[in-house]
Amino acid sequence: MTKNRERLLTFAAVGLIGLFAADKLIFSPIGRAWSGRSAQIAALSKSLSNGRLLMDREASIRDYWKEIRSNVLSSDESVAEGAVMKSAARWQEESGIGFRSRKPQWKKQDDDYGTVEFRVDATGNIESVTQFLFALEADPLPVKVESLEITSRDSEGRELMVGVRFSGLLLTGKSK
User: What gap in Å lies between CA 136 and CA 132, rounded to an integer?
Assistant: First the structure.
């Protein structure tokens, strides 16, 4: 009976060692590979979904890019400055704000695009300032507000001083 018990315990010990080895050598690596593939499948599914959304929006993105390219500033510096100055004069007229200074500065970014940066200092009341900023942002001219400073010129805040730095986009070469 003792021999049977020893044999049974030996088989049990060998079986447990075999299960432990199978777990470490077979089941755990398969589980990690399965988890890794599941994560990769999830990432690929998300990428595929994003690609489909992009393809669904292709027409609207192309139309938007075409609109941006049609409103881009001229590659001739004086013509581009003139277009922005003309637009700034229109924004001033629409809002009733008073300009104190306008300063353009050209910045060449790359072979494909460049920017012209403007600094405008103006005065007006809260209504004219908001109308000016709205006109600047709503204009089809490709401009981006880089910085904005608003300070009060009187103790009651009726007369405001505005400093706006904005840049205009210039596309050249392949990007057109």
Answer: 6
Across residues 59-87, what is the average pLDDT?
A: 82
Cross-strand bridge partners of residue 114: 108, 170
Percentage of the chain surpassing pLDDT 70?
A: 94
- Quick one: 95 and 11 in the same domain? no
Q: CB within 8 A of 119, min separation 6: which ones? A: 101, 102, 103, 105, 163, 164, 165
* Domain closes at, from 56, 84, 102: 56
What is the span of the domain harbouring residue 168?
73-175
CB contact at 8 A, 143 and 166: yes
Give the CATH number of the domain where residue 132 resides: 3.30.70.60
| Same domain as 153, residue 85 | yes
Distance separating the N- and C-terminal Cα atoms of the chain: 93
Is 162:123 a contact under the CB 8 Å cutoff?
yes
- Number of domains comprising the chain: 2
Give this prediction's pTM.
0.59
172 Cβ neighbours under 8 A, 6+ residues apart: 75, 111, 112, 113, 114
